[in-house]
Predict the 3D structure of the following.
Amino acid sequence: QKEVEQDPGPLSVPEGAIVSLNCTYSNSAFQYFMWYRQYSRKGPELLMYTYSSGNKEDGRFTAQVDKSSKYISLFIRDSQPSDSATYLCAMRGYGQNFVFGPGTRLSVLP
Amino acid sequence: DAMVIQNPRYQVTQFGKPVTLSCSQTLNHNVMYWYQQKSSQAPKLLFHYYDKDFNNEADTPDNFQSRRPNTSFCFLDIRSPGLGDAAMYLCATSRDPADTQYFGPGTRLTVL
């Protein structure tokens, strides 16, 4: 079992839809969680950074962490074609390197 | 106002011909990372520098080396590129190992 898993997609949604992107993990020591957005042939861009369990909101983006289930989510409201990208989750425990998921490719259709 | 800069953006080399990729940062961050990312895969950490301290991942091949001559610059040297080394190479920085990482745009390496 890989340490961090994501549904690879591609996930296609119509413009304006609510998107849910998810990661599951196996290491109960993970407590720092990040979401990155990566456009084709570009470097990852940090979207959200959360610590431990709970929700964090930033504009149209909401990050949710459920440590009891070892499950994190990124919600995108009112999705736009410009949101079309690969979304990577990353996480780590105290004193550890970040581990990345393989990414979910999202297409938002106009 | 670019923060993490990578040069070149695209690099073509021949099998076995050494190549150097460059990363510079204007953030004055203490930590610089090199990742390898192949198509549809997660970025894979090769090594990182915390100030001048070099930290190599256990499974990074000896073919990959790195240099950090000062805070701003870090280089990735691939001594004898093989076809399997064709990938996107990402540089990232962070204030300290616990902090968020900021990525450059990447260098796409092609090996002929």
